[in-house]
Write a structure and sequence with these properties.
Blueprint (H helix, E strand, L loop, with lengths): L3 E12 L6 E12 L3 E5 L6 H8 L7 E6 L2 E2 L5 H10 E4 L13 H12 L5 H14 L16 H13 L5 E5 L7 H18 L2 E6 L2 H4 L5 E6 L2 E7 H6 L4 H8 L6 H20 L5
Parallel strand pairs: 3-8, 3-9, 6-7, 7-8
Antiparallel strand pairs: 1-2, 1-4, 4-5, 9-10
Helix pairs in contact: 3-4, 3-5, 4-5, 9-10
Length: 282
């Protein structure tokens, strides 16, 4: 097993004050190893994005621990937090609202480079931005256009290039295809798979359905109502899901053959019963 890059332990997040607090994360545990892609899956409101934002300290957790390569992130001062955020970058869900409409593509992608590598010369930054655009499937002439000139899929590619610009060690992808047309989603998922292979990326990939992460992730964590319901390898979760909620998510994935769908459903439930009978926990 490769070394642990990100480790979340007993994470709790509450919103509100006093008797009017709502617990949105309840004792969440999550581990991401170097070189691994972990899928964090659950329906809307399950706590997936809140978990990621707490891990990046975009919001502060109520209690718990977040460790990055052994260091406690919740203890970081401002300087250490800036360094941490250069190593952990996020690709956001909505490519329409996450890009500043007033900025040119060159400025958007170069912003992180200028912040985290302030001594870099302008021509070198431009050359690197061109390389990043080509890496995500865009062209050099796109440098001098604003986000409004691009489709949703192209805007998400810009967002990915921006995240990669600071050479992060961990990429957190917060439902990056959820706002895209179905015809474009597969292209972006294939791009992530290609980037992982070419750059050796470690990723935490958030999605609301199991179909999205099936061919991309090594390990799956299933959340519901702020709690982890199941965690296991891709083969374990898809082959023998142990939790009824995981089974329900699996059955929500459409299959073109209704006979095969019924057989797969029966197989999953039989596997779950076998796991329960053997006393194996998720």
């Amino acid at each position: 097993m490769s070394e642990v890059m990100l480790e979340v332990r007993n994470l709790v997040k509450e919103f509100g004050v006093g008797r009017h607090t709502t617990r949105v994360l309840d004792d969440v545990n999550l581990t991401v190893h170097r070189g691994e892609t972990v899928g964090l899956v659950g329906e809307s409101g399950s706590g997936k994005s809140t978990t990621a934002r707490c891990a990046l300290r975009l919001i502060e957790p109520t209690s718990g621990s977040v460790r990055f390569e052994g260091a406690e992130v919740l203890d970081f001062n401002r300087r250490k937090l800036k360094e941490y955020r250069s190593q952990v970058q996020m690709v956001f869900q909505d490519p329409y609202s996450s890009l500043d409409p007033r900025m040119y593509v060159e400025e958007i992608v170069a912003e992180g480079i200028r912040i985290h590598r302030p001594g870099m010369k302008r021509d070198a930054i431009r050359d690197e931005v061109v390389e990043l655009l080509e890496l995500v499937g865009l062209r050099p002439e796109h440098l001098e256009r604003r986000p409004a000139a691009f489709s949703g899929g192209q805007r998400q590619r810009i967002g990915i290039a921006r995240a990669l610009a600071v050479k992060p060690r961990l990429l957190v992808c917060d439902e990056p295809v959820a706002s895209l047309d179905v015809s474009i989603q597969a292209q972006i998922l294939n791009l992530f798979a290609d980037l992982r292979k070419r750059l050796g990326l470690t990723m935490l990939f958030i999605a609301h359905d199991l179909a999205t992460v099936r061919h991309l992730c090594d390990h799956i964590v299933v959340m519901q109502s702020g709690q982890v319901r199941e965690s296991g390898t891709r083969e374990q979760v898809y082959g023998a899901p142990a939790d009824p909620y995981t089974i329900a998510l699996m059955e929500a994935v459409p299959e073109p053959d209704p006979i095969a769908a019924r057989k797969h459903s029966a197989d999953r439930r039989a596997a779950a019963r076998a796991v329960a009978d053997n006393g194996v926990s998720a």
